[in-house]
Amino acid sequence: xxxxxxxxxxxxxxxxxxxxxxxxxxxxxxxxxxxxxxxxxxxxxxxxxxxxxxxxxxxxxxxxxxxxxxxxxxxxxxxxxxxxxxxxxxxxxxxxxxxxxxxxxxxxxxxxxxxxxxxxxxxxxxxxxxxxxxxxxxxxxxxxxxxxxxxxxxxxxxxxxxxxxxxxxxxxxxxxxxxxxxxxxxxxxxxxxxxxxxxxxxxxxxxxxxxxxxxxxxxxxxxxxxxxxxxxxxxxxxx
Length: 239
Fold this sequence. Notes:
Elements: E1 13-14, H1 30-40, E2 45-48, H2 60-74, E3 80-84, H3 90-103, E4 107-111, H4 121-133, E5 140-144, H5 146-149, H6 155-159, H7 162-165, E6 169-174, H8 179-187, E7 195-198, H9 201-230
Parallel strand pairs: 1-2, 2-3, 3-4, 4-5, 5-6, 6-7
Helix pairs in contact: 2-3, 3-4
């Protein structure tokens, strides 16, 4: 069974693919990007060529070059570099998986094929199994993003028995708003040491906004009570 150097956890940055004004990949800034993530943001895990990186809009050759650059520039700086290798073509996905293993990536991830879609769990697992088999020593992650793929097979259903068919399976990136499904994934797989990455940034932002609003209301209430008990003069609470 594939085993990463350490369990994938904490913040994992979904990297953009930097471009020049002429639409060419700007490889020269990726080293600076690595340093920014590590030194300024404290982030040491990345997810390359995913949705944020527009991986499916790049050619296979470009995806290979981007992966190579991130792995090279991240060596001895990043903890884990996970490369998304999903594609409509099984052969292309297998080629990218093999390449990720050859360049020393720490894991690979795959979305569901979204043109001729898998119609049930078993068909989807068969596709994922074929990709994983191209790089059997690589930790393998399923990239669950039904809003883009149109494949609505629940992640919790997919996890049932998947490691028996894909021994390298290590977890999933869950980019969906169905929190019940995500919660069931976590709750029903606590003993399996899988990684569950939540990828809907908007939910995280909304939770932060809610926290700020609640904190402001709490402080307003506290100030009001203190003023009432001490008989002090009112002062405006900053917004």
